[in-house]
Amino acid sequence: MSGGVGLLSMVGGRAYRCQGWTAVRSGRDARCDSPSAPVKGCDEMATAREPERPALALFAAELRAARGHAGLSREDLAVKLNYSASLVAMIETERRTPSRDFAARCDEVFDTPGTFSRLEERLRDLPYPASFRPFAVHEAEAASLRWYEHALVPGLLQTEAYARAVLSTRPNTSEDVIEELVVARLARQTLLDRKYPPLLWILIDEAVLYREAGNSEVMRDQLMHLAEMSHRPNITIQVVPYTAGPHSGLLGAFVIAELDDSPSVVYLETAAEGETLEDSATVARVALSFDSLRSKALPDGASRDLIMKIAEERWT
């Protein structure tokens, strides 16, 4: 598209304009009007700090404004982006976070100077626990992830309600910070919706399925979500049953990120904080632990059946 499209936001009574048009938000809608003042350029808009507006809401608003200015339906835009119309709709309504690839394609379609990519970076810069931040980059770039959890559902497979219930247990943490952490956790899950998502091999202890987070409805929805996600061709979920008895996995959760062009990296949960480790000896030991646990786990089909049975019998 020639000429380019400016992306804008309305924050605290200010409008941002690029290349001759202005987007004005009212509620959840955005429209394009004639230039108005005061205005800022696209580059300044992308880096401005706007604490009153969540990063996901900002990306969604700019996408709706750009699509409306271009005269495209969601279906039209989906074709140009090579993504589904349903994904476009979910991102525009803040039910899904955009991937790095999605943002880059938006910049290409709307001929914008990296604006959507910078907005997507803000999503990746959302707060994580300090000990997890070094591993977050490896998780996002991994070709495969081998994950063991003995206490909670893995973050990449948590529902919003389950994540909020878990994160709400953090001591001395305000509701605003909890919401930021929930958004950050959900933002990580977009890697599963990439065109070429990582292989995800999950081992969970059976106790995870019985440990209540939130209430019965939250737990049932979470377990049904696990069962549904296990049907994806890149995701394998296996349960280590109670009948396996004591095992090394009870010492703590861990994730092994296998990268295309770099050595594998391990993230270990500890009582104090998590650790990201890259030395080959540690990675090899943790990989051996994963293989040992996998030998004790139920097959994937039997695991799915158990998950659904517990969802229906324990949490209904």
Q: How would you describe this structure in keywords?
A:
Endonuclease, Chain A, globular, 12 helices, 316 residues, single chain, 11 strands, disordered N terminus, 434 Repressor (Amino-terminal Domain), alpha+beta, 3-stranded antiparallel sheet, 6-stranded mixed sheet
Compute the number of structural domains. Answer: 2
Query: Main sheet, how many strands, which sense, barrel?
Result: 6 strands, mixed
Q: Report the C-alpha radius of gyration, rounded.
A: 22 Å
Helical residue percent band: 40-55%
Low-confidence stretches: 1-53
Overall pLDDT: 80
Task: Enumerate the strands of the largest sheet in spatial order, edge to edge or round the barrel.
Answer: 8-7-6-9-10-11
Q: Count of DSSP helices?
A: 12
Distance between the termini: 52 Å
Which of globular, elongated, flat, extended, rod-shaped describes the shape?
A: globular
Give the gist of this structure.
This protein is an alpha+beta fold. It has helices at residues 42-47, 55-70, 74-81, 85-92, 100-110, 115-124, 133-141, 160-167, 175-188, 216-229, 280-296, 300-313, and strands at 10-11, 14-15, 17-18, 21-26, 29-33, 144-149, 199-205, 235-240, 254-258, 265-268, 275-277.
Description:
- The protein is α+β, with helices and mostly antiparallel strands and 316 residues long.
- The chain has two domains: 10-124, lambda repressor-like DNA-binding domains (434 Repressor (Amino-terminal Domain), Orthogonal Bundle), CATH 1.10.260.40; 133-313, 2-Layer Sandwich (Endonuclease, Chain A).
- Helix content is 43%, strand content 15%.
- The chain has twelve helices and eleven strands.
- The protein has helices at 42-47, 55-70, 74-81, 85-92, 100-110, 115-124, 133-141, 160-167, 175-188, 216-229, 280-296, 300-313; strands spanning 10-11, 14-15, 17-18, 21-26, 29-33, 144-149, 199-205, 235-240, 254-258, 265-268, 275-277.
- Strands 8-7-6-9-10-11 form a six-stranded mixed beta sheet, with helices on both faces. A three-stranded antiparallel beta sheet has the order 3-4-5, covered by helices on one side.
- Strand 7, helix 10 and strand 8 (235-240) form a beta-alpha-beta unit.
- Helix 2 (55-70) packs antiparallel against helix 6, helix 3 crosses helix 4 (85-92) and helix 8 crosses helix 9 (175-188).
- The protein is globular, with a radius of gyration of 22 Å.
- Residues 1-53 have low confidence and may be disordered.
